[in-house]
Design brief:
The protein has 968 residues and is α+β, with helices and mostly antiparallel strands. Among the domains are: 38 residues; 204 residues, no CATH class. The protein is 50% helix and 7% strand. It has 34 helices and 14 strands. A four-stranded mixed beta sheet has the order 5-6-8-7. The longest helix is centred in the middle third of the chain and has 42 residues. Belongs to the peptidase M13 family. One of its GO terms (biological process) is protein processing. One of its GO terms (cellular component) is plasma membrane.
């Protein structure tokens, strides 16, 4: 264990006299008692003796208290004495409940370094901060042995993981505080409707309140029931065709349910590898926009255009498919193929919004789930339950429609139209022949289902109960969806911008998708410019989906469309509505939630507020928790870090001069954004009123609010096609990480108000919402070293992403280009692999205490970005040297140097507790290393930290140089 350093504090007078010193050199407070300059009276002697006794007793009690407190902290943190005179420390990490480290017997933490400064910050903010830091510490641990435990051990001992979560940390604390701010805002808004002459602010607040109220009133939602969704499913049936028909023997090829039927039971748990595949897919999807993953450059492009000899054209069917897909896609429902509007990163201008064509995504998290038999069994039963509920309701509606027709005809007879009498008799005769009224049912000879060639199947209405019919249909729908997923590319290819960038002319794509009329489809969205090209992310998928559609009967396609719609909007229904309950039954199993667990409706509705009127909520959050001064200071910190990095680039030893100049050019082009977007202008109520002007919000129509918001956002997105992106727009709302990413899977429980920041490679932006500029990341009232240590580390992290193994593939204009020399790329890769090897030695523990190692290649981009802490430290030092003020503000009760506090501020943001199951899941899928290693791994490589805490070479926090990695 590292030995404590000798104190470098300079003190004016020692507590006890040096026996060799002269009277002029030192003076003791006790000297007046034991060596008085005059004889003492009896009273003075008695009082002096009592004073000494009290002083000794106080010292004893203070020592006992400190010792007891230290022992208590050890017990609470799981400390215990091991064999061989060593002490084992249990340290909670991002991905494990406890992580054990062997070390020598605890030695008191080293004292402060540097000359004490008399300038003490005693503002309420500084006092609160000082208290928070003190409570976070575990000073019984040597920071050179385990800095994470030293910096966060107190926090870990005083916190626990909520029962409904897999982890809890500083990020969650900020998140919860941000939610509380919004709840207070919502509670303060009047429920009265704004008057006609109300201000823009009043109208905006009314919409904000109405969205929340419409969501939180679950009694009304349950009372409304399935009706709003049925109105949409009826429209699918009207434009495409019925799904409630006989199962046909000719379509048995779409029924392999015997393979998985009966394999699910209530004790089933989703395997860890499946959970990992789903999380990996989502991480890769996000990384395409925000970087952080090393995308390999393929040696050859994906397959090109192919002929479709097997496809049999059917114009009437193609027209129905085109209308149905356009109608669904305009409402945010994915199916068969999906179109996205994204920047043209492979073109000359990455800001021009182009049309991209993706494969379909299904109701399960990733394609691997479609090979797991118990999940397919569960999924089929959920689909059957949804289709049954819809079919039964639709039947009632159609019976009513037929009865209304008879009533109309009877009225016609009364009016003297005798010809109608004969028609009524024919209807009644037909009713006697049909067991199921009304007549004729789809599937009958007159109105039968069509096969892939558009021919009627000639079947008759089934006499089976509805649930049995829908169970058979669900099996075919699930099988069809599984075949779609099998035809798609794996996520590492689908979201790889090198593999996925395959532009074709729009006319050519029309030939590749003969079942879809592209011009008619596009006219639905009325884009301002017709796309010349469409980027196809995985060309082979187009042939597969075409041939699959060709052999699939209409009623199966109709069932597929209805299912996709229902699963997309189920979360907008009341909790007791059958369709919603079926979706929740699936979600609970997939997420490992205990059956019967109630949702936190407040969190659900806060997320919907974000989704529907997120910028209005953002304005109120900014007004409550952010200031123009904080925005300016945040921008100053970021710009100073960019400047420090820019100046450092020519001195990077492994980067040649040509590459260094190109890197400087990219650093100069970085656009920092802090606090809130200006498109719409979050601080301007009139701008927000215009932004949501076309959105009609009703307090008693939550489903309508969700639908209207989706229609508006889809319309807004398509209007940007062919135009340059507005650089004042963001991918986040000020209070959270959601926003214009707009990947609506309606999974509100997992995404509400998550705190984050991001770097966008195609846009060359680093973005920091107001939601993350909160304690323990930032406060304008804090001393500079703490602002730079916490928020500066976040800013430097995002900046470094522009130069990590993903961001380095984009030039200063956000284009996928090679802009480094080959030698620099080689030297970069060598150092990047050093980091990968280093982090691959780190691990967490599973529930059985076994080590599960970090995948250093998966986390490489984020680990490299974390090393940006060095730039934050350099920027802070530059700010100190250039500042006109003398010294810095000290915090009460904290005897640490500014340098030490800088690193304490950095480590504190990674304080976290994690359950073993969550630990393993995260370490297998998350491109971020566990927080324990994000803190300690970064500091092990940083000389400034070693110097600040006097860590000797060879100590755990200062390993030998051969075991350290330095890139930027």
């Amino acid at each position: 264990m590292a030995q404590p350093r000798a104190s470098t504090d300079e003190e004016n007078a020692p507590l006890l006299d040096n026996p060799n010193s002269s009277p002029s050199e030192s003076s003791s407070p006790l000297k007046a008692i034991f060596s008085p300059s005059r004889p003492l009276t009896l009273l003075e002697k008695v009082l002096g003796g009592l004073a000494v006794l009290l002083l000794l007793l106080a010292s004893i009690f203070i020592g006992l208290f400190a010792g007891a407190e230290g022992l208590l902290k050890k017990e609470r943190n799981g400390h215990g004495h091991g064999h061989g005179g060593k002490t084992e420390y249990a340290t909670s990490t991002f991905t494990a409940t406890t992580t054990s480290y062997g070390t020598t017997t605890v030695i008191p933490a080293p004292g402060p370094t540097g000359k004490p400064d008399s300038k003490l910050c005693l503002t309420p903010e500084c006092v609160i901060l000082s208290s928070s830091i003190l409570q976070s510490l575990n000073q019984s641990v040597d920071p050179c042995e385990d800095f994470y435990e030293f910096a966060t051990g107190g926090w870990q001992a005083s916190h626990s993981i909520p029962a409904d979560r897999g982890l809890y940390g500083a990020f969650n604390e900020v998140n919860d505080n941000n939610k509380n701010i919004l709840i207070k805002v919502l509670d303060s808004i009047s429920s009265d409707k704004p008057s006609k002459d109300a201000s823009a602010d009043e109208k905006n607040l009314a919409k904000l309140k109405a969205v929340y109220n419409s969501c939180i009133d679950i009694e009304h939602l349950n009372e409304v029931g399935r009706k709003p969704l049925i109105q949409l499913t009826d429209h699918i049936v009207d434009i495409f065709g019925e799904f409630d028909v006989d199962s046909l023997s000719s379509s048995d090829l779409l029924d392999e349910s015997a393979e998985w039927k009966g394999t699910f039971d209530e004790s089933y748990t989703v395997p860890a590898d499946l959970v990992a595949s789903a999380e990996e897919a989502e991480q890769l999807r996000q990384s395409k926009k925000t970087g952080g993953v090393r995308w390999e450059v393929p040696s050859s492009r994906a397959e090109g255009v192919q002929e479709f000899y097997e496809y049999r054209p059917n114009e009437e069917r193609e027209e129905r498919i085109t209308k149905t897909l356009a109608w669904l896609h305009s409402r945010g429902v994915q199916g068969l193929v999906n179109f996205e509007i994204e920047g043209d990163a492979g073109g000359e201008d990455s800001q021009v919004q182009s049309l991209w064509l993706y494969q379909a995504f299904g109701g399960l998290p990733s394609k691997e789930y479609y090979e797991e038999k118990p999940i397919l069994d569960l999924y089929q039963s959920v689909v059957a339950g949804i289709l049954t509920d819809i079919a039964e309701h639709t039947s009632i509606r159609e019976r009513k429609d037929k009865r209304d027709l008879l009533s109309d005809l009877e009225v016609a007879v009364e009016l003297g139209q005798e010809d109608a009498k004969g028609l009524i008799e024919e209807l009644l005769e037909a009713a006697e022949e049909e067991d199921n009224w009304p007549w004729p049912w789809p599937g009958s000879e007159r109105n039968g289902s069509k096969d892939g060639n558009g021919k009627h199947d000639g079947g008759k209405t089934s006499k089976e109960p509805t649930d049995e019919r829908m169970e058979k249909l669900a099996a075919k729908v699930v099988h069809f969806e599984r075949e779609l997923m099998r035809a798609g590319a794996d996520p590492e290819y689908l979201f790889n911008p090198h593999y996925a960038y395959n532009p074709y002319s729009t006319k050519t794509v029309g030939k590749m998708l003969p079942f879809l009329d592209i011009p008619t489809y596009l006219s639905t969205f009325s884009p301002r410019s017709y796309p010349v090209n469409i980027t196809v992310t995985h060309p082979p998928y187009l042939k597969s989906v075409t041939n699959l559609i060709d052999k699939t009967p209409d009623h199966v396609l109709s069932g597929y469309f209805v299912t996709r719609l229902a699963l997309t909007y189920a979360s907008a229904l009341g909790p007791k509505v059958t369709i919603r309950q079926e979706k929740k039954r699936l979600d609970d199993v997939l997420k490992g939630i205990k059956k019967g667990t109630e949702e936190n409706r407040q969190d659900v509705c806060l997320n919907w507020v974000d989704e529907i009127v997120g910028f209005i909520a953002g304005r109120e959050f900014v007004r409550e928790a952010f200031s123009p001064e904080a925005k300016a200071e945040g921008e100053h910190i970021i710009n100073s870090i960019v400047k420090a990095f820019h100046e450092k680039l020519p001195h990077i030893p492994w980067m040649d001069a040509e590459s260094a100049r190109a890197a400087q050019k990219k650093a100069e082009a970085i656009i920092p954004k802090v606090g809130y977007p200006l498109y719409p202008n979050t601080t301007n109520p009139e701008s927000l009123e215009n932004w949501y002007g076309r959105l009609d919000i009703k307090e008693n129509d939550f489903f309508g609010n969700v639908l209207g918001s989706t229609l508006l956002e889809e319309s807004r997105t398509w209007l940007g096609l062919g135009r340059k992106r507005n650089r004042d727009s963001w991918e986040m709302y000020p209070q959270s990480e959601l926003g214009n990413l707009h990947q609506r899977d309606w999974d509100e429980a997992d995404t509400a108000l998550a705190v984050n920041a991001y770097y966008s490679p195609p846009d060359g932006e680093i973005v920091f919402p107001a939601g993350i500029l909160q304690p323990p990341f930032y406060s304008q009232a804090w001393p500079a070293h703490l602002r730079y240590g916490a928020f500066g580390a976040v800013a430097a992290h995002e900046l470094t992403h522009a130069f990590d193994n993903s961001g380095s593939q984009y030039d200063e204009r956000g284009r996928l280009r090679d802009w480094w020399t080959k030698q620099t790329v080689k030297d970069f890769e060598e150092r990047a692999q050093c980091v990968a090897r280093q982090y691959s030695k780190y691990y967490v523990f599973d529930g059985e205490g076994k080590k599960v190692y970090v995948n250093g290649n998966l986390t490489n981009g984020e680990d490299i970005a974390d090393s940006g802490l060095a730039q934050a430290f350099l920027a802070w030092q530059n700010s100190v040297s250039s500042s006109s003020s003398k010294g810095s503000e000290k915090l009460p009760g904290l005897d640490f140097s500014d340098e030490q506090l800088f690193f304490l501020a950095f480590a504190r943001v990674w304080a976290q507790l994690t359950r073993p199951a969550t630990a393993v899941s995260r370490v297998r899928t998350d491109p971020h290393s566990p927080p324990y290693w994000r803190a300690t791994g970064t500091l092990k490589n940083l000389g400034a930290f070693h110097e600040a805490f006097g860590c000797k070479v060879g100590s755990p926090m200062n390993p030998p140089k051969k075991d350290q990695c330095e890139l930027w």
